[in-house]
Amino acid sequence: MLISSGATDGTIRQVLVGLAVMVPAALLCGRIAQRLRQPAVLGEIAAGLMLGPSLLGLLPGNPTAVLFPAEARPFLQILAQLGLVLFMFQVGYHLDFADLRGQGRHVVAVSLSSVALPFALGTGLAVVLAPWTFSEQERTGLVGPALFLGAAMSITAFPVLARILSDHGLSRERIGQVALASAALQDLLAWAMLAVVVVVVNATGSWPLARMAMLSALFVLCMMYVIRPGLRWLLAPERSWNRDSTLVYGVVFSGLLLSAWATDAMGLHTVFGAFIFGAVVPRRHIDAYAPDVPARLEQSSLLLLPVFFVVTGLSVDFRGLGGQGLVMLLAVLVVACAGKFLGATGAARLTGATARQSVTLGVLLNARGLTELVLLNVGLGLGVIDGRLFTVMVAMAVITTMMAGPLVQRLWLAPRLRTVDRGGGLGGDAAPSAEDADVAK
C-alpha cells in the first residue's frame, strides 16, 4: 500500500534530515579523533553524545528535539539495530585464535583473571549503588542488575584494541597477540554472561528459564555443527554459483539477519545471533574467493553505526547526574580500571610475563569503546539499569577508551617494550630486566 499520510510523510522527512546530520557529524568527529591519535570510533561516539540533550539540547529551541523528534526515533532505532547486527557480525568474523600457539597458558590466565575480578567488583558495586539506582521493590530482584553490571565491567573493546595496537606498532609483537587473544576470549565470556542476564531477566519462572537456556544451547550447537559445515559446502570454490561474489554476499547477509532474528525470537538479543553467525562463517572460503564481501558488510556497518551513536546519545543526559551521579561515576571508574588493570597485570606477572609486559596488558585491556555501548544498550532495553547509571557507564566507556592509547604512548611502554618482548616474558623464559623491575615498583 502506498504511503499517503501527511504525518507519515513528515516522519520520513524527519528521518532523512536526521540521517543527513548524524552521519557527516560522526565521520567528521572520527577524523578529528584520528588526528588526535585516538580511535575514530571515539570521535563518532562523541558526536552522538554532542547531538544529544547533553550539548545540542542545551541550545535555545532544543535543536536535538527538532532534528530527532519522538516520531522519528523508532525508525532511527531500527536503523541503529541493523548497524549493531552488522557490527557484531564483524566482531565474530574477525575472531582468530591462530596466533595462540604457545601462548594459551598466558591468554587463558589473563582472560579469566581480567574478567573474574572486574565481574566480582561490578556485582558488588551494584549492591552498593542499589539505594541510589533502584527502588525498594526493585532491590529485591538485584540478581539481574548485579550480574549485568559485572558483565559490563568485564568488557574489552576488541576492535578498538586492535586499532590501538596497530597505531603503536604492537600488532606483530607477542604482547600484542596475547592482548588481542585475551580480549577476544574475555569478550566471549562477557557475552556469555550477558546472555545469562538476558535469560534471567526475561524468564518468568523456572521452566521459561530452562527453556531459554536449552534453546540457546541448541542454537549454538546448530550453528557449529549444521550451519558451519553447510556454509563450507555452499561457499566452496568448486561451486559454480560462487563465481559471482554478489551471491555470496546475499547468502552471508541473509544468514546474519536470520541468525539475529532467531536469537531475538528465543528471548535473547539480536546481537548474539549476528555475533555467533560471524564466528562460524568459514573465513578461508570468503577471504580467498570473495574478499569484497566482508568489506561491503563493514562499509554498511560503518554507515549505520553513527545512527546507533546518536540513538545512544539521546539517552545520555549529563545534566541529570547531580552530586550522587558524580560519586557514582567516580566509583564506576575506580572499579572498572582497578578490576581490569589488577586482574590482567597480576595474572600476566604470575604466568611469566615481564613487569613491562604485564603493565602494558593491564593498560590495553582497560579499553572498552563501542563494544561497551552495545552491551549497555542491551541493559537499558532490559531495564536492568536506569538512565542515570546508563549515562555514568557511557562516560566510563569513553574515558577508559581515551586513556588506553595515550598511556601506552606517554608511559613509553610500547617503544621500550620491543627490547624485552623478544628476549623473554610471554613465550620466553628470560628473567625480567632491571628496567622492568622499576616498572613493577
CATH T-level fold name: Na+/H+ antiporter like fold
Q: Can you summarize the main beta sheet? A: none
Q: What is the CA-atom radius of gyration, in angstroms?
A: 22 Å
Q: Output the helix-strand order.
A: HHHHHHHHHHHHHHHHHHHH
Structural class: mainly alpha
Poorly predicted runs: 1-6, 418-423, 428-441
List the domain count as a whole number. 1
Q: Helix count?
A: 20
Average predicted confidence as pLDDT: 80
Helix content: over 70%
Using the coordinates above, name the CATH class.
Answer: Mainly Alpha
How far the N terminus sits from the C terminus, by CA atoms, comes to: 71 Å
Principal-axis shape = globular
Strand residues, percent: under 5%
Name of the CATH architecture: Up-down Bundle
Secondary structure tally: strands:
0
Explain what this protein looks like in three dimensions.
The protein has helices spanning 6-35, 40-50, 63-67, 73-93, 104-133, 136-139, 143-154, 158-167, 174-202, 206-234, 245-265, 270-280, 283-289, 292-314, 322-350, 355-364, 369-382, 387-410, 413-421, 434-440. It is an all-alpha fold and 441 residues long. The protein has one domain (87-426): Up-down Bundle (Na+/H+ antiporter like fold), CATH 1.20.1530.20. Helix 7 packs antiparallel against helix 9 (174-202). The radius of gyration is 22 Å and the shape is globular. The model is unreliable at 1-6, 418-423 and 428-441 (pLDDT under 50).
